[in-house]
Amino acid sequence: MNKAPLTHLGDMPVDVFLRDYWQKKPVVIRNALPDFEPLLSADELAGLSCEEEVESRLIIGEREGQDWQLLHGPFDDDTFSSLPEDRWTLLVQAVDHWLPEAADFLDQFRFIPRWRMDDLMISYAVNGGGVGAHYDNYDVFLVQAEGVRRWEVGGLFDSRSALKPNLPVKIVADWQPEEVYDLNPGDILYLPPCVGHNGIAVGDDCVTYSVGFRAPSVQEILRDFTDYVGERLLPEQRYADQNLPLQANSAEITADAVQRLQTLLEEVVSNKENLAQWFGKAMTEPKYAEMDLAPEEEMDADTLLEWLEQGAILRRTDSSRFAWTEVGDGGVTLFADGAAFPCPPQSAAFVKALCHEREFDLQQLQDGLAESSNQAILQILYNQGSLYLENIDF
């Protein structure tokens, strides 16, 4: 089901949140999701963590005579039956990839650009369970789903901050909380990047949903973008020095030489079209590149339309990421799961609708499907696994 973006977090309009808090400072929003209902039970979450393809962890807190422990899934019944009575946490990553309701849940946070979103992690903790004091390099909404979690919030940390030594999990040393909050179901704690925090379950059956965002490092951006541009340059595009003056010392790399190099690089990396194309591909790359989304059998556009006419629903694959950008001729480029598709002006409205919503029936698509270019878009997206059909019986 398509879910509209939130207009308010509790009593706070989202534009006020974006103006005053986003990437600026933490905030606790009480009753931010007043009608919130958990997406799955603790048993169902544990069941997900037993699946081979699902990324999951168990973190067992320190206790007398025993340091922190980190276990990676998949798990089984024996793992859970052997856990201590308290101080452990189960974390399941990218639940939105496996549960359509979780993907729909994330759509509520589309007041932040959807291509900025990473995934929904769900954690289950017994009394005293947590992952220790730490920081993240990205923004996160921590939604309390069930039970109570006590959040300690501290200062700013980075890669130079001291960590406790010889542990399998990264825990900041000398943790000194500045604020402490108890979150109840429906409450949200928002944290900007690098803010220290420590969540501890108060009682059993504590469930927290972490809505995390993508934020590529400058190191990643430079490395990946220069690789992208480099693949498109010709061998004869080289450093040049016309009108070279006579140098007093031939071993000197002069300021003029460095300036020529800087100008050359600026001309290459300042091409906005290249930058937009790379960025769209990069920000829609699947979280798990090894996942094969393609259907067992490809389908042509006519067959897709026949299924829609028979009542099928066309839905975006839960792990898929879509975005678009305008190009100079009135057309758009569609980005889907790391691939770019130039689309003509007559397809612009259709592409924008595909990126905005998660599922469609024939009535929603009808006007756009008169264009053959739009039929081709659906066929490509279906055959690469970015879209799939519901309510059909092959």
From TrEMBL:
Q: Give the protein name, as stated in the record.
A: Cupin
Location of the JmjC domain: 101-230
Q: Which UniProt keywords apply?
A: Dioxygenase, Iron, Metal-binding, Oxidoreductase
Any single GO molecular-function term of the entry would be: 2-oxoglutarate-dependent dioxygenase activity
Required cofactor(s):
Fe(2+)
- An example Pfam family from this entry, by short name, is JmjC_2
Would I find Transmembrane among this entry's keywords?
Answer: no
Gene3D superfamilies assigned to the protein according to its UniProt record, in alphabetical order? 50S ribosomal protein L16 arginine hydroxylase, Chain A, Domain 2 (3.40.366.30), Cupin (2.60.120.650)
Among InterPro entries, the record links this protein to: JmjC_dom, NO66-like, ROXA-like_wH
Judging by the UniProt lineage, the source's domain of life is Bacteria
